[in-house]
TrEMBL record:
Top-level taxonomic group: Bacteria
InterPro entries reported in the protein's UniProt record: Calycin, CpcS/CpeS
Protein name: Chromophore lyase CpcS/CpeS
EC number: 4.-.-.-
EC top class named in words: lyase
Species of provenance: Anabaena subtropica FACHB-260
Recorded family membership: Belongs to the CpcS/CpeS biliprotein lyase family.
Record lineage: Bacteria, Bacillati, Cyanobacteriota, Cyanophyceae, Nostocales
Length: 188
């Protein structure tokens, strides 16, 4: 699977359940979100605008996505809502790796560029360095309608949070149906 196929397969509406372990406090908390992921073509105006923000030629982008979320965390009553645009810029010598541009970061609410790597196993690894922290996230599909995610967040010289997330597709998508059909015919 390449990065474009991963983004295409990710498109749709998802229910996300995350358990986060705050290592310094020796506590965990659960969070639930509804996610909507829309795949964007490399020439989509929002992808072009994001490339311009990072002073990267728009022609260097291979794909993009708009991610919108609405969720809650166990420790607070506050709603966590937002949206961001992502764009991938593959390395010219190795397109399975490259830069992931974000309109807004996850750990810090500011534009941030990280690195992505598509593994031979179809898993996507994202590494992002923020001003005060570093994160690594690994995402993979257990099936076309079940996506898993693990992440670690490191700040102040040590790991501060680890989390596991399962995301269940709410209704099918054309890409998921195609992937599931391919998986079923391969197992026959």
């Amino acid at each position: 699977m390449n990065i474009e196929e991963f983004f295409e397969l990710s498109a749709g509406k998802w229910f996300s359940h995350r358990t986060s372990h705050h290592l310094a406090f020796k506590q965990s908390e659960d969070g639930k979100s509804d996610l909507v992921i829309e795949s964007l073509a490399a020439d989509h105006p929002e992808v072009i605008k994001l490339c311009e923000l990072y002073e990267i030629p728009a022609s260097a982008a291979s794909c993009g996505a708009r991610v919108t979320w609405n969720g809650t965390m166990e420790w607070d009553e506050e709603k966590h809502t937002g949206s961001t645009v992502l764009a991938t810029v593959p390395d010219t010598d190795n397109p399975s790796e490259g830069r992931l541009l974000r309109e807004m970061g996850y750990a810090e609410k500011a534009p941030v560029a990280g690195r992505y790597k598509m593994g031979d196993d179809g898993a996507l690894t994202l590494t992002t360095e923020y001003e005060t922290m570093w994160s690594e996230e690994r995402l993979w599909f257990a099936s076309p309608n079940l996506r898993m995610r693990v992440s670690v967040l490191k700040r102040f010289g040590g790991f501060s949070m680890a989390s596991f997330t399962s995301e269940i597709r709410m209704g099918g998508s054309p890409a998921a149906a195609k992937a599931e059909e391919a998986a079923n015919s391969a197992s026959s």
